[in-house]
Amino acid sequence: MKLTISIPKEQATKVSNLKNVLLQWGMQNNCALVVKESHAEQELSPASPENSYVYQNKQDIIVIPFNDILRFSSNFHYVDIITTSKKHCQYTSLKKIIQNLPEPFIQVHKSHIINMAHIEKISGTTILLYNQTTIPIGRSYLTVVKNKFLAYTMTS
Q1: Could you read off the pLDDT of 70-90 as tens digits, one per residue?
Q2: Which residues partner with 8 through β-bridges?
Q3: Residue 117, Cβ density class (10 Å: 0-12 exposed, 13-18 middle, ≥19 buried)
Q4: Which CATH number fits domain 64-155: 2.40.50.140, 2.40.128.20, 2.40.50.1020, 2.60.40.1220?
Q5: Residues β-bridged to residue 109
Q6: Measured between alpha carbons, how far is 127 from 58 in angstroms, rounded to an integer?
Q7: Is the dihedral of CA 29, 23, 89, 109 positive or negative?
C-alpha cells in the first residue's frame, strides 16, 4: 500500500507535526512507515531501500537506514536489529517485520532475516556477512535464498 500526501509549500510548517502524528500511528499499529520529503509533497510508503526502518521502543521512535541494517534476529518475544554500528531491540516478531521490508531483505532461517547487500558469500547452508558473522540457512529456505541472492547480485 502506498499513501501519498501532497502539501502546498506555504503550509510547510505544518508538515513536521503531520509526520510525527503519522509515525506514531504507524508505531501503534505495528506498521513500518517511511517518511520521505520532496519539494511539494510528503510521501508515506512501505519501506524502500533508500529509506529507513522505523519503530517505537518504549518512549522513543527509532529510525534506522535500511543500508545500515545487517540482519534481524529473533530473540524470544523480541527481535534484535543488528546494524553496522550497534544493536537495537524491538518487541515484535520476524513475521511482522518481514511484511514491511524491501527486496534486499530475505528470511533465511526461522530466526533470521538478512540484508542481501551485506552478504560476502553463501557456502553450503551458511551465509557469511561482510562483518564476518555467520548465519545458518534453514533447509526449507535454502533453494529460495540461493535463487534470490543470485537474482539480486545480477541486478545490483
Answers
A1: 999 999 999 999 999 999 999
A2: none
A3: middle
A4: 2.40.50.1020
A5: 112
A6: 33
A7: positive
**Cross-strand bridge partners of residue 91:** 78
Radius of gyration of the chain (CA): 17
DSSP characters over 89-150:
EEES-HHHHHTT--TTEEEEETTEEEEGGGEEEEETTEEEETTS-EEE--TTTHHHHHHHHH
Residue 62 CA to residue 143 CA, distance in Å, equals 34
Convert the pLDDT of each residue in 9-58 to its tens digit. Answer: 444 444 455 555 555 555 555 555 544 443 333 344 444 334 899 998 88
Q: Which residues contact 116 (CB under 8 A, 6 or more apart)?
A: 104, 105, 106, 148, 149, 152
Tell whether pTM > 0.90: no
